[in-house]
């Protein structure tokens, strides 16, 4: 089953072609309720089988859980067969539960150039990819 696609070329450099219906991966990070890894994988498999090729995630979706669950799913897919988007601006700082209290304990807002590069590098590591198509 194929979904309708859209081509976006704002810069005139070839652009991106992606499915009009995308998969918002916040629920994979246990947004509304906790789900198992098996349920997350089954959901991703159903989306792929339904033709979805655009996936949107973020480091703060489950403090990296959404990206961590997308990683094994996308790992065996050709990188040019899907579009992946993310967000930047927050760097997850892992800490023990007794230190999780208040602003700055869960995440940090990096300064200047680091605002983009550090969170994106960490996101790419969790996803096991070299780049995001959209940020």
CATH hierarchy, class? Alpha Beta
Helix content: 25-40%
Mean pLDDT: 78
Based on CA atoms alone, the radius of gyration comes out at 16 Å
Largest sheet: 3 strands, parallel
Number of separate strands: 7
Could you tell me the CATH topology label.
TIM Barrel
For the biggest β-sheet, the strand order reads: 3-4-5
Report the sheet-strand fraction.
Answer: 5-15%
| Name given to the CATH homologous superfamily | NADP-dependent oxidoreductase domain
N- to C-terminal distance: 28 Å
By helix and strand content, what is the structural category? alpha/beta
Topology summary:
Elements: E1 5-8, E2 16-19, E3 23-24, H1 37-49, E4 54-56, H2 65-75, E5 83-85, E6 91-92, E7 107-108, H3 114-127
Parallel strand pairs: 3-4, 4-5
Antiparallel strand pairs: 1-2, 6-7
Describe this structure as you would to a colleague.
The structure is a single chain. This protein has helices at 37-49, 65-75, 114-127; strands at 5-8, 16-19, 23-24, 54-56, 83-85, 91-92, 107-108. The protein has 135 residues and is α/β, with parallel strands linked by helices. The chain is globular and about 50 Å long. A hairpin with a 7-residue loop joins strand 1 (5-8) and strand 2 (16-19). It is built from three helices and seven strands, in the order E-E-E-H-E-H-E-E-E-H. The chain has a three-stranded parallel sheet, with no helix packed on it. The chain has a two-stranded antiparallel ribbon with strand order 1-2. A two-stranded antiparallel ribbon has the order 6-7. The two termini are 28 Å apart. The protein is 28% helix and 15% strand. It has a single domain (5-127), classed as TIM Barrel (Alpha-Beta Barrel), CATH 3.20.20.100.
């Amino acid at each position: 089953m194929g979904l309708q696609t859209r081509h976006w070329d704002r810069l005139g450099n070839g652009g991106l072609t992606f499915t009009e219906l995308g998969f918002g991966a916040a629920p994979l990070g246990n947004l509304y309720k906790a789900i198992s890894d098996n349920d997350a994988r089954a959901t991703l498999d159903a989306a792929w089988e339904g033709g979805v090729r655009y996936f949107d995630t973020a480091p703060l979706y489950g403090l990296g859980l959404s990206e961590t669950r997308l990683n094994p799913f996308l790992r065996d897919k050709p990188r040019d067969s899907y579009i992946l988007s993310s967000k930047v601006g927050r760097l997850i700082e892992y800490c023990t539960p007794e230190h999780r209290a208040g602003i700055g304990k869960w995440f940090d807002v990096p300064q200047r150039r680091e605002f983009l590069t550090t969170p994106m590098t960490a996101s790419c590591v969790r996803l096991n990819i070299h780049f995001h198509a959209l940020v």
